[in-house]
Fold:
Amino acid sequence: MKVFQLARKINRYLKQRQKQSLSRYLSPVRRIERVAPVPGQRVVAMTFDDGPSAAPLAPGGGSGLTVILLDILAQYQAFGTFDVVGTTAHNYPDREGKLHTAQWSGISHDHYPAFSMDHLGGVVNQPELVRRMVAEGHELANHTYSHVAFGPTRWVYGSRSYLPDLAAVVEDLRKLHDLVLEQFGYAMRLSRPPHYIDPTKDGKSAYDAYRVMGYQYLAASFDGGGWMPTTGDYRRDVDKMVEPLAAALKAEPESLNGQIIFQKDGYNMSKETPVADALPRQLALLQRYGYRVITVSQLLDLSPFTDLPGDHPVFGAARALANRGHVVGYQDNTFQPDRVLTRGELAVMISPPGDGVHAELASNGGASKPAFRDVPSSHPYYREVALAHQRGWIKGEGHLFQPDRPVTGEQLTEVIRAMGRTPAGMAGAKALGGDSPWTGPITRGQAALVLAESLGG
Ligand SMILES: [Zn+2]
Structure:
């Protein structure tokens, strides 16, 4: 257990550093860990990793685990987000690892539901389970076709094989995406990397792969505990999955609102399935506190960002822009309505949704040579700045674009006119700024109000 404690400590430190870098840039791929509490109701999501699984429960045997979980969810009218894999049947040759450790299912690869039992798991081998998930209103998320790590890692999963580069990661994701689309008519929009290993061998990351796939990064904020090794006492293992939730709800009944609970659709590290006995108790608890368990996509529809509650004056505008496909949130899924809007961010926010930027730059060769010294091709806003410049929406000065310079209210209205639109929504934006003059720097919240009104329709 000491190794896990150390690994968790290191994880916490890395997470802190990651948080700082993820809040710097707007991104089409946002890390969805939790969302702002939804006013007037209590909603929470649950993600079930590594299934589907037709392997029997342990201890106890009997029906496959996924069937049991689906029955329980139906009984509580709860909707899960199943983070499914394609199949681990090709992850051989491999050796079985030591029970109660992270290598329990294999040394070089993961095997789900367990070593040499691959045929009992995965979308490829258990399509009926997936069909039932879709039919009963659950969400499917892409946990990759083969559950091979996106890149090398040290520590706990250091012995694992990994994919060679970003292209291989995209290929693996695409394989499961297309399979699920063809077989079940279901288009997945969320994905979680195996073991949350983000960096690829060629210096890219899960975020680059998800940008290509049009996905959001599916994380979680509350650990359901179903993956942990046994204490040696099954009843205790089940209790340990219920107690943290009970304690959190008792301390603050609102605290789970907007959170994403991590669950396991498979064995824990000791090849047991305490989730089968813990889930009904967890759901009963949540129900008693007035919670509805909904899918992550439903949660995102109600509350797209982590820091923008539904009663915030900018909420409607930010959500409208996001729903139309505009990139308006930071990579850590914050909106930061009070932050001053920069020229680089404005270029991103007004960019045509979807692949418009790619297509347009490719067609006129604009991507070949950077127009500005301070926005090199490695800059995260490079393509959007190049497009805004090409179209004459935002002008630079000589060789400089000054992406970090604040935008004034007057400049924003000029940009909207340059786009051939009529500026609108200024009254609300000015009111939001209090006494600050429209000739001064404006916030991202003010900009969202104006852009939502001016670019709509
Ligand atoms: Zn996994």
Observations:
- Residues 39-298 form a domain with the TIM Barrel fold (CATH 3.20.20.370).
